[in-house]
Predict the structure.
Amino acid sequence: MAQVSNSLSENITRLMQENLLAVFNERDPQKRLATIRRNYAADVRWSDSEETVVGRDRLHDKAQALLDGQLAGLSFTPSGPVYQTANMGLLAFDVFAPGAGDSGGGQPLVSGFDVAIVEDGVISQLFTVLTKEPG
């Protein structure tokens, strides 16, 4: 069984964690945009159940709209380790209301996972799948 090299493995882990925490959990648009420019291909494709957007600016715009809209005030937390094979990473997440996270003992409002394809050291494709939605 082929092993992912340590440096690629560490990079995929970092990219998946920063995707969740430094992009989708980041409220400061300038910090988020800096992370996006560093971690994603210029023509990144992000697909979820609503649509596919292409490019860093569109990814940033959609993330901002989510954080200003239906995810306002909510917090993302990883719900397990980063799993990976070849150049693909997967990280499951939960979304909590303020104060209801790990230490608050509350149930997540939303759960899901992100899958990323990494090429040339950056995320070239991102897929978000929700496994639990509000209501």
User: Anything to note?
Assistant: The CA atoms of residues 5 and 22 lie 24 Å apart.
